[in-house]
Design goal:
The protein is an alpha+beta fold and about 70 residues long. It is about 40% helix and about 15% strand. The radius of gyration is 11 Å and the shape is globular.
Length: about 70
Amino acid sequence: LTCRIGMNHNQSNRLLNKQELAEEINQPPTTINKLRRERKIPAIRIGYRSYRYNLAKVLRALSRLEIKSPE
């Protein structure tokens, strides 16, 4: 995974939508959906079908997983 290093406090606490998270961790949005459904990454449910993600918490969760980059 590639991600931004050196986030400041405001960036690490900012909630991202699926597309923003996908861009941050260099994965397709479908992978974000899959990881959320499998409860491998933390998500905050907003409304009926919307989710938001805390980048710092997602990166901690992903550090415990091995994810192959898309080829």
